[in-house]
Amino acid sequence: MSAVEKAFHGLRHMIATGRLGPGERIPPEGELCAELGVSRGSLREAVRMLAALGVIEPRHGSGTYVSQLRPEDVIGSLSLTLELLPLPGLLEVYEIRRVLEAHVAAQAAARCTPETVRTLFSLIEEMESTDDPAKASELDHRFHAEIARVGGNPTLASLLAVFRARSRKYQVFTLPEGPRLRSKSDEDHRVLATAIADRDPVSAAGAAQAHVAQTERWLRAFMPPVEEDSSTD
Question: Least buried of 32, 36, 126, 176, by fewest C-beta within 10 Å?
Fold first, then answer.
């Protein structure tokens, strides 16, 4: 085990065991180096690694603190590694996404308000009326994010946002088959939004699962290259 790994796992153990709790300032460098048996350089590198994961927060002029360790924030750091997955790896993730999207859609149907319904259909109308792929991608993200938000679990919403961010890197709607695929996606959005508006959790779950499964089939069929600012959600 390298010195950096030793420092990383030592700090991680302190946090995992509760010795350092959410929001607490970590001990001075000298104390930590002596306790962990590492150099200042190794400790600082470990701190940078934990900060990238959202576990530690360096505050300029104040010190270094354990973050609030909110599940949604820690889950969000998965994007650092998930975005490295090649398409075959991403397709394996889709089985998880189908289950979670169905769950949050059912929850959203049980909890939806007239304002939720207005927001969802407004986003759909904007998606259907734009020819700008970047704008359509952003609207698509907002549509699914709104459903996850209404579902009421910030951790699930964060995890699904990470999954969707990776899938958005794949261009599908600009392929020759794009207009047909885009039309089908728009139709799926309306079916899903209607089930939520009807406060029908079973239909909403089925619509969400079918929509994600359709995206997975497209990716398997076309195996498109990675592109920036594109969406197949």
Answer: 176
